[in-house]
Fold this sequence. Notes:
The complex is a heterodimer.
Chain A: H1 2-16, H2 19-39, E1 53-60, H3 66-72, E2 79-84, H4 88-96, E3 102-107, E4 110-115, H5 120-142, E5 156-157, H6 164-178, H7 182-193, H8 196-202, H9 207-235, H10 245-270, H11 273-292, H12 303-309, H13 313-326, H14 331-360
Parallel strand pairs in A: 1-2, 1-3
Antiparallel strand pairs in A: 3-4
Helix pairs in contact in A: 1-9, 2-6, 2-9, 6-9, 6-13, 7-9, 7-10, 7-11, 9-10, 10-11, 10-13, 10-14, 11-13, 13-14
Chain B: H1 2-15, H2 20-38, E1 47-53, H3 58-69, E2 73-78, H4 83-88, E3 94-98, H5 102-107, H6 111-114, E4 115-119, H7 122-145, H8 150-159, E5 163-167, H9 177-206, H10 209-215, H11 220-249, H12 258-283, H13 286-305, H14 313-319, H15 323-335, H16 344-371
Parallel strand pairs in B: 1-2, 1-3
Antiparallel strand pairs in B: 3-4
Amino acid sequence: MVVLFTLIKQGINFQLRDKNWLIFNIVFPIALLLMTSYFMKNNFQTDGMNLDTVKIGICNETSDTIYFDAIRNLESDVDFEIKEIETVNDGKELIKCGELQVLLIQKDEEVDVYSGDENYIENVYVTAVIENIESGIASGKVAINYRPVENYISAQYIETSFSSSDYYGVVIITMMVLYVIIVPLCLFSYDFDNQIVQRVCMTGVKRVHYFIARIISSVIIELIIIIPIFLFSVFVLRTNWGSHLLWVIISMLLTIIMAVMLGTVLYMELQSYEKCLLIVQTIIIPVWSFLGGSYIKLNTNNPIINAVLWLSPLRWLNQGIFRSVYVNNNGILIKYSLIAGVAIVLLGVILVLRSGRRKEQ
Amino acid sequence: MKMIWVLLKNNIKCLTSKSPVFFFMFILLPVVISVGISLLIPSKKNMNGIVCDYSDSQLSGEIIESLYMNACLDLTISDSAKIENEVRLGNYNFGIIINYNFDEAVKNYDFGDAVEVYCNSEGFGKLLEETLSLELHTFAEIINQNNEEYIEDIDEYLNSKDSIYMVNMDDSTNDYTATNMLFSFIIMFAFLRTMTGASLVTKDRELGVYTRILMTDVTVCQYYIANILSSVLVVLFQNVATLCLTVLVTDIEFGGTIGEILVVLSVLSIIAVALGDFFVVCTDNKEISNILSTFVAIILLMTGIVPKELLPKTAVIISSVIPTRWAVNCLENMQSGEPLTGSIIYIVMMLLCAAILFAIIMIIANRKSKNN
């Protein structure tokens, strides 16, 4: 037990000997948190459709003016500043220099809606208006005695307090949890390259104990890195972690252990720091992070694509946390904790089998 | 020159881990994955909605068809009743539940009983209310005028609508959302790949190879030129592979020609390599330079992913001095119908940025070499 404790302490001291490494590992995720929360701020705002004025250019390539008459006479919360345009190219030029936001071209049985990238909200709004006008025109063609609409549907407005710092405060931290895979790689590459493992085992320490000690060291190192970032998200960014913190902490802890075990097994298999790092940094972290929604929010109802998304443990963890916080449902977190537990056991079995084989070799 | 060539060949061998399988796996696999997952990105230019159809009748099928035809809506069908939660979580802009008694309610003009609508934006919510009310009212009118064959009449009504298209400035109707995401991912993978090139320098230092190489006729400048060239070549190969694969496997439209896109990516690759080496030279530490490169890659990805129009004002100013934004600007200009020559200023700025970084690398490396 004393030996195990010494080994754990030595592993932590070894990795933390480089203070710059520790500082960079804490400071950069915090910088990333701040940057992403700020950069993506507008992506999480839902009131973008509340427009005051839209500058519309209309260009008629047919003799039919039905749409444009309808737009001119439309009663709307939004003011339309309408300008007649001679040609499409004239309209495009006006969009480029900001004098127009949306350009409508009426052709035979077709309406084209142009806009610059910066006016996509106006574009969606005007397109929706045109679609409604078109519905009115088409209904006049088929319904003989068309009466004005009386029973309007009332949509239920859902106010979401889901800000970019709520989203990125969670996903950047869970992504950092994944970076722990690199810690055992550093420890093992040093130990194996310098025959430290053999020397430790010659003192009577069992190989399994050595691995357990190194895994515990890696987990503690990750906690030393994650805790300040987590506290920063709670107290500075005011990220909403919900009221089921116990489940969130359990599932994050299991992810850290799983990531450390994965890094250990990977090193045992490849026995090369460079190869392992390439796999971890080029494949595992970017792909799992992307599928988990660490860079940008992903949604799909396509069952195949959805199944691919759920291959990432970060998807389980992030979605579990968000559902726990905003929908008060811990189902995904509990399921994920069970899956992570099983994965840890399986990786442990592989590790025991592989370390035994290495010993024989 | 011969020295650079020898070092270059050796570096490429090291960077490809001396195994073509390993090389292809780590170049092509991320590409395959990023191409695949870039198809996942929902359009940013439409309102994303989710519909759950409990009624599952012909009439409810018609209203879904009508919503599908709407140019500004991007619709997903779900059999889950948790639509309100999906909107609350921000996964969709709106959600519609078509109730069991949909047909009966529409016939009786009781639209509030026919559907439940959830929306996260009041402005768009009003438009959606109007769209659905107009459509259901027309359906009700048709049903009450012709009780027998109303489905055919509703089909006729839907087919009689003029087509409405959201057109890009280059006159195409392509959705460039996935393209821009893919482009950002190509950039990120290029940055990640350059890290391995840069790590060769630290590895050489750790093993004492660096000192031994410099004891021969090789100069510091030649050593770094060989390192930079080898990384650029590997990243270029990666980019060409990505673009070819994308064009062959998917129908993603980039907006410019493959040649033009390749020019932009190549110039950006040179910056990526310069940055990777810059971090290594400045930090002299493999692990710290790794952390730096990784976070810079993610930050650059972010600045590329987020459309300029969605960035806060200060962020637009910050991103305007970031090389990846210059590359994304080139792409966006091409998507709006301009040739690459119209973005020459960005290409020059990127090359200038790379040249400055290379100069700094050489100065620092020479100074450190003299000190040692």
